[in-house]
Amino acid sequence: MRIRKLGLRRYGRFTDAFIDFGERVAGFADLHIVYGPNEAGKSTAMSACTDLIFGILAQSRFNFLHPYATMRIEAEVEISGGIRRFCRIKRPHNSLLDEADNPVPDTLLPGELGGLDRSAYNTMFCLDDETLEAGGESILASKGDLGHLLFSATAGLADLSARLGAVQAETEAFFRPGKRSGGLAELKKNLAALNEERERIDTLATEYARLVIQRDEAAAAYAEAIAQRSRTQARMDEVQSFINALPRLRSLRALRTELSPLARLPVAPSSWGRDLPALTSRQTVLAAQMRSVTETVVALQRELDGLVVNASACALKSRMELLTDLRARYVTAAKDLPDRRLARAEERASFDAARSGVRAGSRATPPLHRRDGISP
Question: Which CATH architecture has domain 2-126?
């Protein structure tokens, strides 16, 4: 991957600034030196290259002029697919855009570096004042090989000596010539113990065959024992069912003994079984009615027993019977009286009408004269 043009559109102290590295010139080293006074923005441009490839950090320190939402880095890059234009904005995801501002995979540019991550990239290609100072301090504080120290200073690995010391100590703890202790010695002891265990449990082929036969015989005996246990359990369950039935058997025999005197009785019709519920219900109803009637009879009997005979009233029995007959006639006459009155009114009206007709006829008819001149 080669950056042909870097655009600091809105990044750090820059606005619409561009660095054009031009095309690769054949036959010449592709090396560019960016120089300028202090605070000119050289470190800012180097950080812009890193942020272009790996993304702008969540807590970036280059937002002192442009807010996070407006930060933008542009570049024209030569990659394996040709020359393409990209821009990087401040966003958690999909922050790498193409020239049409459409999102492209964030791993596109790091993939062109062979999987190099941000930390390794900074260590190898981003040498600055802080890295140089840390390397110098490592040289002053270290007592190791000077070549290692110089390499750590130039490569940005300020703690290389400490790491080498830790690795050396770990190596000596694992193995030291002439020593019986250490990680390797412990592993050898474990390996010897495992070999002894393997030899102890190792078995000859003939012994193995004998053990296989014994295993098969034991398995067959076990299967037979399981089957026998199942049969025994079934028989035990059957016997237990017989034991549980003994009380009912005794009850059945007692009932048969109780019913034996009734053996000569005729067999009841089969319909009795169907009629029995209705008859039982009817019997219950009749019993209730009988109790009610009995209670009523008893109450009336008590009331009758409590009556006092009046001799004077008994002497009037014949007269009471006559009055009863007369009362019946009176009631009948009272019922017929309206009809008779209505009939009388009708007869009177008919009579009055007839009488009126007779009077009117007598006034309209002239007197009759006999031929002999004598009036009738």
Answer: 3-Layer(aba) Sandwich (3.40)
Beta strand 14-20 with 72-79 is: unpaired
How confident is the model over 18-70, as pLDDT tens digits? 999 998 888 888 888 888 898 899 989 999 999 999 999 999 999 989 999 99
Neighbours of 26 (CB within 10 A): 6
Q: Are 173 and 183 in contact (CB under 8 A)?
A: yes
- Residues 164 and 144: their CA atoms lie apart, in Å, by 9
Where are the alpha helices (H) located in the chain, listed in sequence order?
A: 42-54, 108-112, 118-125, 129-141, 146-155, 160-174, 183-201, 205-259, 271-305, 311-315, 317-364
What would the pLDDT profile of 75-98 be if each residue is shown by its tens digit?
999 988 789 999 999 999 999 999
Provide the edge-to-edge strand list for the sheet that holds 14-20. 14-20, 2-11, 72-79, 82-89, 96-98
- In whole angstroms, what is the distance from residue 280 CA to residue 63 CA? 104
pLDDT in tens, 212-247: 899 999 999 999 999 999 999 999 999 999 999 999
In the chain, where the domains are located: 2-126, 132-196
φ and ψ at 375, to 5 degrees? -75, 150
